[in-house]
Design a protein that fits this description.
The structure holds 2 protein chains of 2 kinds.
Chain A: H1 20-23, H2 35-61, H3 66-84, H4 93-114, H5 118-146, H6 151-154, H7 188-211, H8 218-240, H9 248-269, H10 273-301, H11 323-333, E1 337-339, E2 342-344, H12 354-362, H13 368-372, H14 387-393
Helix pairs in contact in A: 2-3, 2-4, 2-7, 2-9, 4-5, 4-7, 5-8, 5-11, 7-8, 7-9, 9-10
Chain B: H1 21-30, H2 48-60, H3 75-84, H4 89-119, H5 128-151, H6 161-178, H7 184-211, H8 215-246, H9 250-257
Classes of the chains: A mainly alpha, B mainly alpha.
């Protein structure tokens, strides 16, 4: 059912309240809940985290907006807490990491297929194959460090195999910038897609930067250092596809619309009734926040929000396995590279290009992502359960 | 600190109060500045407040998870599962899943222990071959449990609730052994906790299998227990030897090793 974001007013700000017990509520079950419940929790934590990040940046540049921003931001803070605290205590940081990569793969794949702009769809597919590779590397770590099976978390929705090897994902900063959509002509869905994936990638980066040093294993510490660097590249990529000429208020409006869009997508697909109730509640909260910002947009910028927002939200994000699309993309585009703002075939990258020189230096003492997954083939129950790799693994010397 | 610094050398450890005698006095004075004076902590709830909050959450919390449904009820699996009905087959499968996950992770722990051995400059015990022996046993135990679960019609790739719980409990041991700064001796302390748990768990599992009428499994589990007892004896011996070496009581180590309940094989 379509959602008319102009007529649906949601819950007014003064009724968006919480208690500590609500914020630190009952988590989902790592064993029993569907993997896509974890995916939605991770995504929505990223969306809320971006809401806070943007709000602070905006406040630092716009004195007149500090009051309204602070008011909405406090609610976003508590929304993020409630969502992020749905992660259970028996889910280790590495397990959460595997959830982050599954989120990146499945959500980006859904977005790439919905994206009306062919260039931006290409950009999403480009990033998708890199996160796909990260899942493989972290799964190898999980197996080889702890003797555990990543598919216990990903639940057969997502293939665990090499994508574009992380070792070649390192690029010169100039090769991570993409061409932005044009704010006056881009489809509303293009904007929502860009804001969604930027938010998810930024939170992924921040998460790896926080938990990387909590590992004691030197290979894990190296691995997080390497993949966090790629996530930084991805944030650079995805923030560059957003038109920098959008005004601050326009960006705020789009952030709120993105939150509405994402919660609306979560509501449709959530199978856990209690958590679905949270998505419904927060959809109503976000509609309230969106209308609050619409009023600011009208009164401060003297512009009609309908210039920026669609009357009805477009196609929802699909929280389901995108295996076939990912496999097709892998088969066609795994060797692609980026030169400037363009995604190009491998042959177009010169041996002395800035990105090649950059990665040669960075990888000159070895590559953690190569080390951790050397010869790794995912096998149900870990590689120790595989008669071939298990037997090979049986030799320490 | 250099790579050659021994953890029992005297150094610049700053964690104790005695490191800062003047500031320590101020710290103790300062502790009462922000709280009402003269009221016993019990009157303000004390640690009981935490307990009440935890009880509240515990009453509302569900379990970590539940068991998955059986994979197959055909053929042999059907017969066995039928035989277990009324004797809580689910609880048995949960225990099997726990031991399977523990043994599989144990394989990786002994690989980490081998790294300690490789990195240690002057270790005489254990030997590489001894670690490899135990690692091979852990892998064999994992395979045994995988087969047992398959015969019972259960999915050996699933994480059972007990497997999840024990993985949380033992996660610190992985962290300890993977840390390049920890010594072989420190690693052996971690391994000892694992082997102690493993011994009791196999004893329990073998006993449960026997009482559930699973005689074949009970025999296999008793064999595994015997191997685990030898692992424990070896680890105790290595640790005693390492600690005695550290504090200069090498002769005492030999005496202590004879006290181990199940001595290592000749």
């Amino acid at each position: 059912m379509a959602l008319d974001i102009f007529s649906e007013k949601g819950v007014p700000l003064d009724r968006q309240v919480f208690t500590w017990r609500e914020l630190a509520g009952k988590p989902f079950s790592k064993l029993n809940d569907d993997a896509f419940t974890r995916v939605r929790v991770i995504l929505m934590n990223g969306i809320e985290s971006e809401a806070l990040r943007f709000s602070h940046a905006c406040a630092r540049m716009n004195g007149a907006l500090q009051g309204p921003l602070a008011r909405v931001r406090r609610i976003e803070q508590h929304q993020q807490t409630l969502v992020n605290w749905l992660n259970p205590g028996d889910q280790s940081p590495l397990e959460t990491t595997i959830g982050f990569e599954q989120t990146a793969i499945e959500v980006t794949a859904s977005v790439a297929q919905n994206e009306p702009d062919p260039y931006l769809a290409q950009v999403f597919r480009f990033g998708l194959l890199e996160d796909f590779d990260h899942l493989y590397r972290y799964s190898a770590l999980y197996d080889r460090l702890e003797g555990k099976d990543a598919n216990n978390l990903t639940q057969c929705y997502t293939d665990i195999t090499a994508g574009r090897p992380t070792v070649v994902q390192h690029r010169d900063p100039a090769d991570d910038l993409r061409a932005p959509y044009q704010r006056s002509t881009a489809a509303p869905l293009t904007k929502l897609n860009a804001y969604t994936i930027m938010a998810g990638e930024h939170q992924t980066h921040d998460y790896y930067m926080n938990i990387g040093p909590t590992f004691s294993d030197p290979v894990a510490r190296e691995l997080y250092a390497e993949i966090a660097s790629i996530e930084e590249q991805h944030v650079t990529q995805y923030e560059s596809i957003i038109d920098p000429n959008e005004s601050w208020l326009e960006k705020w409006l789009l952030h709120e619309a993105t939150e509405v869009y994402n919660y609306w997508s979560c509501v449709e697909s959530e199978g856990n009734r209690r958590i679905k109730g949270i998505w419904e509640r927060f959809l109503a909260y976000e509609l309230g926040q969106l209308h609050y910002v619409m009023e600011l947009f009208k009164s401060i910028e003297r512009r009609d929000p309908a210039e920026v927002l669609p009357q009805q939200l477009p196609t929802r994000i699909k929280f389901e396995s995108q295996r076939e699309f990912v496999r097709q993309t892998l088969a066609r585009e795994v060797d692609f590279r980026a030169i400037g703002t363009q995604i190009v075939p491998l042959a177009a990258e010169a041996p002395d290009s800035p990105s090649v020189r950059y990665r040669e230096q960075l990888n000159s003492q070895g590559s953690p992502t190569e080390t951790v997954a050397a010869g790794y083939i995912y096998s149900p129950g870990t590689e120790l359960a595989n008669p071939v790799t298990g037997s090979k693994e049986g030799r320490l010397v | 600190m250099s790579a050659h610094t021994d953890p029992i050398d005297l150094g610049a450890n700053r964690t104790g109060m005695a490191t800062s005698p003047l500031d320590a006095r101020k710290l103790i004075e300062g502790a009462t500045l922000g709280v009402p004076a003269g009221i016993p902590s019990d009157a303000q709830g004390g640690a009981d407040a935490l307990e009440e909050e935890r009880v509240l959450y515990s009453r509302e919390a569900g379990p970590l998870g539940t068991l998955p449904p059986p994979v197959s009820l055909k053929g042999a699996a059907s017969t066995i599962i039928q035989g277990l009905k009324g004797k809580d087959a689910n609880g048995f499968i949960d225990l099997l899943g726990e031991r399977l996950a523990f043994e599989r992770s144990g394989v990786r722990l002994y690989e980490l222990l081998a790294v300690k051995l490789d990195a240690a400059s002057d270790s005489h015990a254990p030997t590489r071959a001894e670690i490899e022996d135990i690692r091979r046993d852990e892998l064999a135990h994992f395979t045994l449990l995988k087969g047992a679960l398959e015969k019972l019609g259960a999915d050996p790739t699933a994480v059972t609730p007990s497997a999840d719980a024990i993985a949380v409990a033992s996660s610190g041991v992985v962290k300890l052994l993977a840390d390049p700064r920890t010594t072989l001796t420190e690693a052996l302390k971690g391994i000892l906790t694992v082997e102690l748990v493993d011994n009791d768990s196999w004893l329990l599992l073998a006993d449960v299998a026997r009482r559930m009428g699973q005689e074949e499994l009970a025999v296999q589990f008793h064999d595994a227990l015997a191997q685990e007892q030898r692992h424990l004896a070896r680890v105790r011996g290595w640790l005693a030897q390492a600690i005695d070496g550290q504090i200069g009581l090498k002769s005492a180590a030999d005496d202590r090793r004879t006290d181990v309940n199940a001595p290592p094989p000749a």
